[in-house]
């Protein structure tokens, strides 16, 4: 399934924040895929383990950190945050604005300065409900409202 020769696994380097290859039996580790790797299978596996996404976050007073670059403190209720997000969602679905355009001025996340772009991430890097929703999307799809400890989100998978 992964495309690696027998005995090899993929590990994550904490110091370099990138994957490396480790042979369980010989204890050898290498940065490049080991000899005998099926590169096509490896690339297909890696494509399924990483996603790229943009999001629009609306925080509320019960968010784990109810403050943002836009507002400090945030006092709106969760219900109000959901209504705000529904309004943005409607504009996106009607083609009036893109998620990126709205995120750049309305998102309570610091990613607003990148139009909501979170870049590439792997499983285990985001809050579970956010990760589950993102990996379930196809590239170009927009999620429904997703709740996390940070607030409520709309997510667009971009890669």
From TrEMBL:
Database matches in SMART domains: WW (SM00456)
Name the Enzyme Commission number(s) assigned to this protein.
Answer: 5.2.1.8
Q: Which GO terms describe its molecular function?
A: peptidyl-prolyl cis-trans isomerase activity
Statement: the UniProt record of this protein carries the keyword Isomerase: yes
**Which terms are listed as keywords in the entry?**
Isomerase, Rotamase
Q: Which reaction does it catalyse?
A: [protein]-peptidylproline (omega=180) = [protein]-peptidylproline (omega=0)
The answer to whether UniProt assigns keyword Membrane to this entry is no
**Which intervals hold domain PpiC?**
48-159
GO cellular component terms?
cytosol; nucleus
Query: GO annotations under biological process?
Result: positive regulation of transcription initiation by RNA polymerase II
Q: Cite a single Pfam family from the UniProt record.
A: WW
Q: Which InterPro entries match?
A: PPIase_dom_sf (IPR046357), PPIase_Pin1 (IPR051370), PPIase_PpiC (IPR000297), WW_dom (IPR001202), WW_dom_sf (IPR036020)
Q: Where is the WW domain?
A: 2-36
Q: Tell me the superkingdom of the source.
A: Eukaryota
What protein name applies here?
Peptidyl-prolyl cis-trans isomerase
């Amino acid at each position: 399934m992964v495309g690696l020769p027998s005995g090899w696994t993929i590990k994550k380097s904490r110091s370099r924040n990138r994957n490396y290859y480790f042979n369980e039996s010989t204890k050898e580790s290498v940065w490049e895929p080991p000899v005998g790797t099926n590169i096509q299978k490896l690339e297909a596996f890696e494509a399924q383990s990483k996603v790229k996404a943009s999001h629009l976050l609306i925080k509320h007073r019960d968010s784990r950190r109810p403050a943002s670059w836009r507002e400090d403190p945030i006092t709106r209720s969760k219900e109000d945050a959901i209504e705000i997000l529904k309004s943005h969602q409607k504009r996106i679905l009607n083609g009036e604005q893109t998620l990126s355009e709205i995120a750049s001025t309305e998102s309570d996340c610091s990613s607003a300065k990148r139009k909501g772009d979170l870049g590439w991430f792997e499983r285990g890097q985001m809050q579970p409900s956010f990760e589950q929703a993102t990996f379930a999307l196809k590239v170009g799809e927009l999620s429904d409202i997703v709740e996390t400890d940070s607030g409520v989100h709309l997510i667009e998978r971009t890669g």
